[in-house]
């Protein structure tokens, strides 16, 4: 029913747009000078809306309309990497807020001095996975470190993981014997206890080594449900990845299906540039990008995928 509703919405959008274009064409043919100003404004709106609908046609993969489980992990490098992970969290949060996405923090591990070690979020919005899948991989930062008294240049890494939130739509059996469950007290930044009781939970899936934790819900039961949902989503993605690798092997293709490869570089010194290493798209305004201006990179990646498929 969700798929039918989504398809009907898409068809309705195109039909309404077609009707408006037809009406505008008829009014233009009337050659009424008094209506030219209003028609000019309508044409500007139509061009914009056609562009937006054309962009949506790039969402061709199975889960592009799905919501997302989203994670950021700082790489090696201590304070530098943890600060970079926090910068990425701010960048993505600003982009999500700009699109009116609903963001729910599931788990956050603060850095030792500043920044974050990791964060896990639930993100809900139109084509959330279709857009955010472009951010999956390792993000690299080059800058003069604000934490280095010698003002030396540092390179930092952080990993972004993105899974389509399809837990409710899939049937995956998870045996209790495969789980190692730990309870602990939820804590905020700086280690302050949010609650006195052990309401936070950490689940390790023994066969795969996947670890998920959740501490931002009010009760142990809610945290466990959220953690199991995240685990189920990751297990499904892992199974899909294994299937893709098997198909590629059968076809004889040399395909790296891993999620750990570097995808984008953010250089703040000695020059300023952000470059996507897959699509080749780049910006000379890193500050704008770090403030959440990610749409051009996402669109370039989606068009890159189309070209790769057709090529």
Provide a quick synopsis of the model:
This protein has seven helices and eleven strands. The chain has 311 residues and is α+β, with helices and mostly antiparallel strands. A hairpin with an 8-residue loop joins strand 4 and strand 5.
Q: What does the model show?
A:
- The protein folds into three domains: 2-56; 68-169 and 255-310, Alpha-Beta Plaits, CATH 3.30.70; 176-251, Double Stranded RNA Binding Domain, CATH 3.30.160.
- It is α+β, with helices and mostly antiparallel strands.
- Helix 1 runs antiparallel to helix 2 (36-56).
- A hairpin with a 5-residue loop joins strand 2 (102-110) and strand 3 (116-124).
- An eight-stranded mixed sheet has the order 2-3-1-5-4-9-10-11, with helices on both faces. A three-stranded antiparallel sheet has the order 6-7-8, covered by helices on one side.
- The chain has helices spanning 2-29, 36-56, 79-98, 128-132, 220-251, 286-290, 295-310, and strands at 68-74, 102-110, 116-124, 137-144, 153-164, 179-184, 200-205, 210-214, 262-267, 273-276, 282-283.
- The radius of gyration is 23 Å and the shape is globular.
- The chain is built from seven helices and eleven strands.
- Residues 189-194 and 253-260 have low confidence and may be disordered.
